[in-house]
Each structure stands twice: as structure tokens, then as C-alpha cells.
Amino acid sequence: MAIKKIKIRNFKCFKGLFELELNTGLNILVGNNETGKSTILEAIHIALTGFYGGRNIRNELSQYLFNRDVVELYINSVNSGTASPPPSIIIEVFFDGSINPEYEGNDNSERVSCEGLRFQIAFDEKYTDEYNVLVSKKNMMSLPIEYYEVTWTTFARQAVTIRGIPVKSAMIDSSNYRYQNGSDVYISRIVKDLLSPEEVTAVSQAHRRMKDTFIGDDSIKAINERIRKESMIVDGTVSLTVDLGTKNAWENSLVTQLNEVPFGYIGKGAQCVMKTELALTHRSAQNAQIVLLEEPESHLSFSKLNQLIKAIAEKYGDKQIIISTHSSFVANKLGLENLLLLENQKIARITELLSAEFFKKVSGYDTLRLILCKKAILVEGDSDELVVQKAYQSQNNGRLPIEDQIDVISVGTSFLRFLELADALNLSVAVVTDNDGDVAGLEKKYADYIKENKKDKITICYDQVEDTGTLKIGKKPYNYNTLEPKILKANGNNITLFNSILGTDYSTIEDLQKYMKHHKTETALAIFNTDEEVVFPAYIMEAIRNE
């Protein structure tokens, strides 16, 4: 049992209708901040469980659940005398497969017969008279949420209760801490999943005896006697005791420890691991068909995150999992073919990615940097990255590319793998690469992206001239077609200029070329830091100009 599709209308950041088709198994939501990743998880969880922020949604109704622009338009319409109908939040959940025949019908926005559920926060018609009086005053300041009601109906137009919904979700947000004393999630899990009824009774009795001991302590008796003597006005006996509470009061008195340190005092990383692991093994997650994970990478070290991702992949492969993340490692490790890119209330997805297995195994690549930036410039190494950034600064009043949401990314020799990903998601990318004295070979390598196969948003930038010379390094001919000699050439082989930039004192261009070859990083860093005016090769300038 899984969700095939979800439609969200007017909920939080989603103005109007937003639609998302989901994979039966794993779904990885990525996108920049405020694009709606968390909102999607919240919408699914509300529709299936009725809980928002750990509380019943009926008790949490607020105009802040509604899209701000929609509320503003509505209030303006009321105050201008052209009142439009009160806005509503609608979440439609289309189920995949046979969930329950009683849920099948066509009461959905598509008017197709299928199994599904409709959750709605909408104006309740029984308040029409009161509402009309309010509207007639034309001075509305906020959404009249007191006239709203929460309802669940099947696509067969039948009202249902939360208890009766056949598909359940478990929401795990390790980045937030909503429990009261930092340990009730853990204690609740012990009570519900580990202890037998006899053990619960034993703990309760031990807790009661602890309270009895407190009350019977001689020092407490003496203190109470003094309080009684000092109480001259109150009609009755004032004394100090402990809250006897209910028979389950002991649950709130216990404190979880890790290595004898109370839960609230351990590091956030350890708290995150414990909370996520326990939540995943909790009965609610075990029984849920859908697991919702909010940024599992929060506060985790690389090794701990690796353990968590392995557990998710191995233990919950039979469930529908929806994860929001900003971590390239998480996305790579779980499979980029499962990635859903959210931007401007639209979804881009990768249906087939030949390099997916590569990124799983070599998961350190910053794939999400490529996916989430406005434009990426791909280079081979650190020295190329520094030079490209300097070239961009020289043309943009000293701004770094990242300040304009342009990310210069070193990808080693994996250009084609990143280009496959960029092509699948229609991303803006420029590649800066050396021709290494073999333009024909380079053009063959990038044949799918140049000339007649040129993509609208992908540009391969390289020098089309093969330079030659007589210099040798040892017994090997010097390569005149890499970054350093191309920069020298673009500046007319100006020895004086580069001696000044590099802090050297060479008299021949050959000696300068040798130094730059053997000190690539130092050379690039010196160029990046210099105040001298440097001319950059045309293929580099093409990359930073291309939009």
C-alpha cells in the first residue's frame, strides 16, 4: 500500500494547486530553502494521521496554515466589498493499488474513479449568518478561523475518522525536539514495546514506594510541621509532598540516560541518533506503510549518517519512504534515480540515470550543489576552480560566483556523469576543460553536448587551438594546452607580470612554465589573490558569460 499521487491546495507555501507523483518505494525530496519540502511531508502526515507538530490538527487551526498570499487576497476582497469565498486547504491523497474498495470513487479534482482520501480545512456552512454579519463590516484583519472545520472524506464521498484510515504514516523529524523532557519518546517506546504488563505494574509500584519514602522522611515531616505553624491565614493544613498523579504518572518522572548522562545534556548528534533510531523502531513506524523523514543528516557525523542511511535502506525497503534532505551524501547513497527536485512549485525527476550506481558507491560527490544552484561551472581541480572564480570576480565588481548563486565545482574526471545528471534535470551548466593537445579527442568525448547535439543549457568550454613548442620536462614534451600555459599565452607570455604575481624572478618563459607546472595550486592561489590585471583565456570567459 502506498501513495501514488498527492495534491495540495493553499497549504502554507503552496499557492493554488501543487501536484506530486510519488515512487512506490523511495522518494528523495531536494530543493532550496523555503521551496516546500517540509510542507509536503507535513501535508501527507496531516492527511493520514490528523497530527500537525505532534498535536491534533483540530486543536491547531490557524490562518498560518494557509498560504499567505491566498489569505491576503481574500481579506482584501472582503474589505473592498467584493468578498470572495473563504479560502480552504485541500489535500488529496491518491492511493496506489487496492487499499479499501470503500475509498473508491470520483470525488476528487480529476473526477476519475480511484481509491483515495480528501482532507479539508474549510468554512463550515452552519456559521453562514454570523459570517455574513462579519463580512458586511468590511474591516477584516485576519482569516475568521473560528468558522472553519476539519473533515476527511473518501473519494466515494463518505466521511471517515482518523482511526479508520487504512494507510498510516510515521513522521520522523530529528532536527526538532518537540517532547517535553527530552526522554518521553524513549520511555514511551520502552513502555509500549518492551515491558510486559507485569513489569509496568512493578515499575509503577516502585515509583509509588519512592513517593511514600519521600513523604515519610523525618526531614520532610519536620519541614511540614514548621510550614503548618507558619500558616496562620489558610483554613487547613499546608504541607510539602510530591504529586501522586495518575497510575501512569511514573512515565513523566523518569529520565533517560546515555552513559549515565541525562538525555537533555548529551550532544545534539547523540540525541539525533537516538531519537531517529528509536522512532524508526517504534511501533508506529513499524506499523506505518509510509515513513516520512525530515533531514536525517541533522547533527550527524559522516560515519553516523552512513549507519543511519544503511539502516533505512536495509530495514525499510518494503515501505514507501519520503525523505527531505540537503545532503549530497544522503541523495547519492540512497540513489539519485529516486530524486525529486522541487523548484517554483514544480517537480523535476530523473527517470533513468546510468551514473546512479557510481554516485552510490562514490557518494562524496557534491551532486546537490549542482542540482540546487542557479548555474554550475564544472572544472577538473582546485587550481581551475580558483582561476575561474578570479575570472568571474574580474568581470563582476569583485563578487564571487557563489554570491550570484553560480557554483564552481571541482568534479575530477567525472564531467560526463555530472552532465548526465544536468541533462536529466535541465540544469544550467558550463564545463571548463583543457584540450590537452587533442581537440578531436575532446570533441569526441563531448559529442553528445556540442555542435549539432548542443543542449540549450549545457556549454562545453575549451580552447580550440592546439599549441606546440620545444620545451621538455625531463624526457617528456611540455603540454602547452593546459590551464597555466593558456593563461600565459592570453597575457602575451608577460614574464614581468607573472614574476610579480608569483613572487618569482625568472628570466625566461620556459623557466616560468616549469615553475607553474610544478606549483599549480600555488600559482592559482597567487592569481586569485593578485591585484594585477590578468587577461583570462577566451574559453574561461565563455563559461562565466554564458547564462
What does this structure look like?
- This protein has 20 helices and 22 strands.
- By secondary structure, it is of the alpha/beta class.
- The chain has three domains: 2-168, Rossmann fold; 184-219 and 243-289 and 297-319, no CATH class; 373-545, no CATH class.
- The strands form six sheets. Strands 1, 2, 6, 7, 8 and 9 form a six-stranded antiparallel β-sheet that branches. It has a six-stranded mixed β-sheet with strand order 10-13-14-3-15-16, sandwiched between helices. Strands 18-17-19-20 form a four-stranded parallel β-sheet, with helices on both faces.
- α9 runs parallel beside α10 (328-334) and α13 (382-395) packs parallel to α19.
- The longest helix has 20 residues, at 197-216.
How many domains make up the 3D coordinates? Answer: 3
The major beta sheet can be summarized as: 6 strands, antiparallel
Structure annotation, total helices: 20
Content-based structural category? alpha/beta
Envelope shape: extended
Segments where pLDDT lies below 50 for 5+ residues? 177-184
Helix coverage percent: 25-40%
Overall average residue pLDDT: 84
Beta-strand percentage range: 15-25%
Cα-to-Cα separation, first versus last residue = 44 Å
The number of distinct β-strands equals 22
Estimated radius of gyration: 32 Å
